[in-house]
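Anyone up for a design puzzle?
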């Protein structure tokens, strides 16, 4: 080829591959012409820049005018390929950095959320959404105590968080399992056999008692739960002795501070009429007997005079002669003074009939209870399984013109946290409060349990550690929250807390309210105007707790020996049809698990707690000697249809 011929030299800057860059527009091609003089490119060409540059490692090669052009084109092509590879490498590095940064941000956010949750455990209260969870009052006791106890409470250091390690693991687990499905049997009774027991204590096969032997007057002591048991026992004794029962009255208690009488809590007319086929009940003592000095004539019988768990033979031998002689017997402070066994079958059935059918809450309590249930179900208008038995016509008023619900979000758990100061002090256990706690509980025992104080001085009692290992200590709020988390309840679970005045106040409940923010009490659900009619009546407030706990989808207790928990669980068994599960923990087994709280891993903890609780859900008939109010699965109260 002659020097005058044109030779095309294609130069590009950037990517020269067949595939266009997605972001850059196509580049124009530049044509350069060879001249007759020695090979030379324009000053603007890359070759010219290359030649005029300082010597490099490429200057060792000998280049002729023609070969230089060929070499230049090859070098330029190689540069373009290297640039493409570099761009791809840069893109890969950028995406890799982006993924790393994103992962780091996600992990950081996770740890930040857990740190925030744990830090809230030490706080006293919280606000969730539009509802401020007021929780419980600041005072740490259930009743007013002497000035020296109040001084102890002033300036007390914040309660140290117990089980901090396990609570931290529970917080992590709840954060990770927020959207995971709950265990299948969490909201249901796991045993089909439970549905084989049906209520049948309403049936009778005897003639009414005329009450010819005289009158029985009963003044029941304790709170509403003890009073309920006393009423049912007095009905049974009246039938046993063929006596007329005067409508029971309730003794004013310095602990409960409630002046409510029978008619303030229960429906009098329903009680009298429902039991008319069994015994005769009147509202007042016969006029000819009202003027008698019952104490002077020996007609007053106290709990001291009646042995605990007295058999029917005791009443026939010791009380019936008084009736024959004086025509009246007054049981003062009457409580759990009738044995569970051996009792004639029909008398036992009468006790069940009284508890589950004759005692019906008054309209004022039913209406307020229905409102609490409705709000716990997030205003869902569906009818609960036990609503009719608990709140009567007020359960139906919600249903008018409404569709039956099937929403899972309306379910709620009711929790009875038996951790009031009377329970805590009487247990003789320790709860991590140090010397201040020991002094306060000792002072409370001196005032309210003097016999226990004297017994402690004269007899060597088990140590707090031994009591805990034997399952004789009430579950602390920290232990309760760990149990619920291990069973599978998550942060979205709606929880109703029964009772009030938890020992230790809001600081003691901080772990529970932080890990389960949807926890409320009746004080949260009611406005100040709605709760005002019940404000000074602890028994009526307890009746509202009874309604909400009994109607709940799941009921959890922390002390299976509590009268309240026993009555609620029994009511759910009697009317529940095998659809109303109750969580009754084995405190001895849980104590062994909690003992390893500094070493046990969360998955192992979950497995052991779930197994311990599930084993206590067994379906069995009433053990001999146990209360029919708590264990109604027996032929005296229920019928087995399997």
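Challenge accepted. My sequence:
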């Amino acid at each position: 080829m002659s020097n005058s011929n044109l030779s095309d030299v294609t130069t590009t800057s950037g990517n020269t591959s067949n595939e266009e860059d997605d972001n850059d527009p196509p580049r124009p091609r530049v044509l350069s012409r060879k001249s007759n003089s020695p090979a030379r490119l324009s000053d603007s060409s890359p070759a010219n820049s290359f030649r005029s540059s300082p010597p490099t490692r490429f200057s060792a090669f000998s280049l002729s005018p023609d070969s230089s052009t060929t070499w230049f084109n090859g070098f330029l092509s190689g540069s373009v390929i290297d640039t493409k590879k570099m761009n791809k490498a840069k893109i890969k590095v950028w995406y890799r950095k982006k993924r790393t940064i994103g992962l780091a941000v996600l992990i950081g956010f996770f740890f930040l959320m857990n740190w925030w949750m744990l830090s809230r455990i030490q706080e006293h209260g919280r606000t969730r959404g539009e509802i401020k969870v007021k929780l419980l009052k600041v005072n740490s006791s259930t009743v007013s105590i002497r000035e020296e106890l109040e001084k102890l409470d002033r300036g007390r250091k914040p309660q140290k968080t117990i089980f901090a390690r396990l609570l931290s693991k529970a917080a992590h687990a709840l954060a990770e399992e927020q959207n995971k499905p709950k265990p299948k049997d969490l909201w249901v009774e796991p045993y089909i056999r439970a549905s084989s027991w049906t209520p049948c204590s309403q049936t009778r096969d005897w003639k009414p008692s005329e009450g010819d032997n005289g009158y029985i007057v009963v003044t029941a002591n304790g709170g509403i739960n003890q009073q309920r048991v006393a009423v049912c026992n007095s009905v049974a004794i009246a039938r046993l002795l063929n006596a007329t029962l005067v409508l029971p009255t309730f003794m004013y208690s310095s602990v409960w501070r409630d002046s409510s009488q029978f008619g303030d809590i229960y429906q009098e007319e329903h009680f009298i009429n429902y039991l008319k086929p069994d015994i005769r009940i009147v509202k007042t003592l016969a006029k000819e007997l009202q003027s008698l000095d019952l104490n002077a004539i020996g007609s007053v019988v106290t709990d001291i005079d009646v042995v605990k768990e007295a058999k029917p033979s005791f009443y026939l031998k010791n009380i019936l002669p008084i009736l024959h002689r004086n025509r009246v017997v007054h049981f003062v402070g009457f409580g759990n003074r009738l044995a569970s066994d051996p009792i004639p079958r029909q008398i036992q059935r009468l006790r069940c009939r009284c508890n589950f059918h004759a005692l019906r809450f008054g309209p004022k309590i039913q209406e307020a209870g229905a409102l609490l249930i409705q709000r716990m179900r997030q205003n869902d208008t569906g009818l609960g399984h036990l609503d009719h038995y608990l709140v009567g016509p007020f359960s139906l008023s919600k249903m008018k013109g409404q569709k039956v619900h099937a929403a899972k979000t309306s379910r709620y758990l009711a929790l009875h946290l038996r951790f009031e100061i009377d329970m805590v002090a009487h247990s003789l256990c320790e709860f991590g409060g140090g010397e201040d706690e020991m002094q306060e509980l000792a002072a409370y025992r001196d005032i309210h349990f003097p016999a226990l104080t004297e017994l402690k001085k004269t007899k060597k009692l088990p140590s707090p550690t031994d009591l805990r290992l034997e399952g004789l200590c009430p579950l602390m709020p920290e232990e309760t929250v760990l149990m619920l988390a291990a069973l599978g309840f998550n942060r979205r679970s709606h929880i109703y807390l029964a009772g009030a005045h938890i020992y230790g106040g809001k600081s003691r409940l901080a772990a529970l309210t932080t890990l389960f923010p949807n926890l409320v009490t009746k004080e949260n659900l009611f406005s100040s105007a709605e709760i005002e009619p019940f404000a000074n009546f602890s028994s009526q407030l307890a009746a509202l707790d009874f309604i909400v706990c009994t109607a709940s989808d799941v009921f959890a207790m922390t002390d299976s020996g509590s009268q309240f928990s026993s009555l609620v669980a029994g009511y759910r068994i009697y009317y529940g049809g095998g659809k109303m599960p109750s969580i009754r923990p084995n405190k001895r087994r849980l104590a062994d698990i909690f003992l390893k709280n500094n070493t046990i891993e969360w998955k192992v903890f979950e497995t052991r707690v779930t197994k311990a609780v599930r084993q206590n859900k067994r379906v069995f008939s009433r053990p001999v000697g146990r209360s029919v109010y708590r264990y109604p699965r027996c032929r005296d109260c229920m019928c087995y249809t399997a």
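A detail worth pointing out: Residues 125 and 506 are 7 Å apart (CA to CA).
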